[in-house]
Amino acid sequence: MSKKTIAIVINTSWNIYNFRLGLLNALRDEGYRLVLIAPRDDYSQKLVDLGFEYHEIKINNKGTNPFQDLLLVWRFSRLYKKLGVDVVLQYTIKPNIYGTLGAKLSGVPVINNVSGLGTVFLNDGMSSKIARWLYRFSFKYAYKVFFQNPHDRKLFVDKKLVKENKTGLLPGSGINLAKFRPVQHKSEVFVFLFVARMIKDKGVVEYIQAAQELVQKERKTGVEFWLLGDLYEANPTAISQKQLDKWTELPEIKYLGHADDVACVMNKADCVVLPSYREGLSRVLLEAAALAKPIITTNVPGCMDVVDDGVNGFLCEVKNSHDLSVQMNKVLALDNQQLLAMGKKGRVKVENEFDEKIVIDAYLKQIKSLVG
After folding, report:
1. Which of 40, 66, 219, 324 is 20 to 30 A from 360 (CA-CA)?
2. How far is it between the farthest Cα atoms of the chain?
3. In degrees rounded to 5, what are phi and psi of residue 315?
4. Do both 157 and 202 map to the same domain?
5. What is the pTM of this model?
6. Which residues contact 219 (CB under 8 A, 6 or more apart)?
7. Residue 328 sits in a domain of what CATH number?
8. pLDDT tens digits along 230-275
């Protein structure tokens, strides 16, 4: 009897490599044949080196050309037929929408994961309206749609983008607790760390404004504000290199660029800050909590789900740099024992609610209900 084939489809190979390896290994251990489908990038070969079967698909992640997207439906359908796929697991907006339609044409059941609403859902413009219509049309053909926080699921159900009985909740991509383990460090300065792509929707402008307020107005010393993440000029809210250079004229603000080993950098920080406007379920915050770092984040879906205010971190108002600086001051006022205790409570929260095993078990249950 031949192995059942599971396709994992995401808009970057980087995403598969960094967030889905635990799931891939678990599915492979269960005896399934895995095919990984994503645009080619620097991580595609790394997946092959790990023994996975990789197939390239070209996706213009920022494109809005309807003819190009219709062609994408055909590409997905052709690939699913060619590879003999039995079940498709899809993530990110274009695979979720156009991959679902392609799977429908191929007669293949789909399990989707809405890992975040993206920029299009942060406004009510034409692009947002089109995206909602496309979700509504394509999700009629999905077998299951997982969401990463209850707020996103409620939004989709209330706007009739998906039937509630098709939906489920997952704790993000889950955290490998053996991989993300706390490491104690000592430093002469207190380090706040912002980890995200350099785009406004992640709250980077508010982070810098809060840092400037603490250093220039309140004369805080012995504090540094680190930025870790790529410039992302394709995004409409991207921060330019010129703007970044201006920010780092203040010696306390340091841009670290890109890092493959984010945990290594996090372990050198004292507090992780993410003032994002909205997330699916922030992977950055889950990793920070797993590493026992106090967190400051916004009181919005996908961020507040990781933080119990005053317990393992503090919540601030979205798009409010002054309130963010107030929460940073609260952290600076804590002594070392209080910081350690706050971090440990974050670790316990991740152990109880966000273990990767929860995600793996949920997927295995759905896959076995389809193909055994």
Report:
1. 40
2. 70
3. -105, 145
4. no
5. 0.88
6. none
7. 3.40.50.2000
8. 988 777 788 999 999 999 999 999 999 988 889 999 999 999 999 9
